[in-house]
Amino acid sequence: MSQACAENSTQNSTPASQSKPHLWGQRVSDLTETLLAMGVPEKKARYHSHQIFRWIYERKVSSYEEMTDISKLAREALAEKFDITPPLTVATAQTSIDGTRKFLFRLHDGNTVESVLIPANNGEADETTSRLTICISSQVGCAMGCKFCLTASMGLLRNLRVEEIVGQVLELSKAADITNIVFMGMGEPLHNLENVCRAVEILLSQYGMGFSKRKVTVSTSGLVPAIRKMNARLSRENRVNLAISLNGSFNEQREAVMPVNEAFPIEELLDACREFTLEPYRRITFEYVMMGGLNDTTEDAARVLKLLDGIPSKVNLIPYNPHPASPFRRSEDGDVETFKRFLLDRGVAAMVRHSRGRDILAACGQLKSAEDARAAVN
Fold it and tell me: Which residues are catalytic?
C-alpha cells in the first residue's frame, strides 16, 4: 500500500450522476457564503443558513417547499445551487435478538453501505442505560485489507460524500434518539479524511445535529499521516474522540492481520498518538480484537502495557467475531478475562466490549453489503 493511498483518497468520491453539490453536505458557513454571493444581505444570509439547518436536522425535511419560513426567492436560488434529494434510502433493516438493528442503505449510484443501531442494554433502556450508539460507514468497501474484517474482502469502491455520511445519522435519528456516534462501520474514516471532518462539523453544529464532541468517536486502522492531519484539522470545538485499532502487541504479529502496519509500524503509530492533542480527562481508545492462539496471551498483554506507557488511554478488548471464510477463531472467555485483569491490575483502563448483533452479522468486523455477504456465504 502506497503512502499516498494511505493518507487520503478521493477515489470515485463523486459519482458522475451527481450534477450539483448536495444541501446535506453544506456547513452553516458554506450556506452563508453561498447566500452572500447571491446578493442576500449578511444578516438575512446568516438567519436563512441557521433556519435551513434547523429544517433539515430538526424537522428532517427533504424538499425546499417545506421550508416555509424561508423566502421563496431564497428557496428558488438554493434549489438552483444544491440538490436536496435524499442521497440514500433504507433498502433493508434487520433486528437482532439482542435489540441491535442493522440498516442497509442504498446510495445514489446503486452502491450500498451498512450502519448499525446499538442499544446499551438489549434494547431495554432505563435512566442508567439509555445510551444508544450508531456505528456509521465512511466508505463503500475498504482499502486497508485487514484479515479479520469482512468489509476488507470488498476492496475499496469509493469514498462516501459528506451528505452520505451525515445522511446515515439523519435517517437513523428518525428511528431512535441517538446519543453516541462511532465511525467504525464500513471503510477507513481517515482514508476519507476531509469528508469525515466536514461531516463531524455538521454533526456537532448547534444548528445541525447538535451532538457533543465527547459523544463522537473516529476510529482508524493506523494511518499515521492522516492522524496528524486530523489533529491539525479539527478545531477545539470539533475535537472528537480518537480510537486506534491496535490488534497486535508487536509488529510482525500486527502485520499478519493488518497490512497497514507495514507502512506505519506500531512505534510510528504510537508516536502520532503521543502527539495527538487531548483535552483534560480525555483518552485515546485502543481497540484490540482478540483472536485465539494469535494475540491473546499474558505475554501479549505485557507488551501492550509497555506500548501504551505515557499515553492517556483505555483498551477495549473485543473477542473476535467470526464470519464466513474467516481463518481466525474467537479467544476463549478465560483468556480474555486474564488479559483484561493483567491490564487493570497495572493501572490501564480495560474493558471487554461484548459483541452485539452477531446473529445478523452486525458485530465488529462483520459489516458488508447484503449482496456481497450472500455471495461470500455461497
Answer: 114, 364
Asked if 242 contacts 276 with a C-beta cutoff of 8 angstroms, the reply is: yes
Q: Tell me the per-residue pLDDT of 152-174, one tens digit each, with 9 for 90 and over.
A: 888 999 999 999 999 999 999 98
- 370 pLDDT above the threshold of 80: no
- For the chain, what's the residue count? 378
> Residue type at 302?
A
> By mean pLDDT, which of 114-128, 141-155, 267-281 is the weakest?
114-128
Average pLDDT over residues 133-142: 95
Q: Which three cell numbers stand for residue 56?
A: 433539515
Per the listing, cell 503509530 goes with: 269
Which domains can be identified in the chain, with CATH numbers?
27-81 (1.10.150), 86-377 (3.20.20.70)
Inter-residue contact 35 to 48 (CB < 8 Å): yes
Q: Rounded to the nearest 10 degrees, how much is the dihedral formed by the CA atoms of 265, 9, 243, 213?
A: 150
Residue with cell 451528505: 163
Q: Is the dihedral of CA 159, 8, 197, 51 positive or negative?
A: negative
DSSP state of 223: -
